[in-house]
Specification:
Keywords: Plasmid. The protein has helices spanning 10-17, 30-50, 55-62, 72-86. By secondary structure, it is mainly alpha-helical. The termini are far apart.
Length: 89
């Protein structure tokens, strides 16, 4: 069975359904959104080192956090940030 072209990739999903902040036609071109995401992630890394946080601290903090269902646009917004981060490493 062939994959649905609207959901074949996260970027395709964002272009088809939009995100919380953008209608499908307003999804930014990744060439311009990526630098801001990279700078944000660098700042987060600096804060993590400064606060002496590690993986074990994250596991303790998030142990009681449970996933909730989300509409497509909201889920796309969350996944959008993950996609941009993964593309930088």
């Amino acid at each position: 069975m062939a994959a649905d072209p609207k959901t074949a990739s996260l970027y395709s999903r964002m272009q088809s359904y939009g995100t919380l902040t953008e209608a499908p036609r307003d999804v930014p071109d990744a060439r311009f959104a990526l630098p801001a995401t990279v700078h944000w992630m660098r700042a987060l890394a600096i804060l993590t080192v400064d606060q002496k946080l590690d993986f074990a601290a994250g596991r303790r903090f998030y142990a009681n956090v449970h996933a909730r269902g989300m509409p497509d646009r909201q889920l796309n917004t969350v996944r959008e940030q993950l996609l941009f981060v993964l593309n930088q490493r």
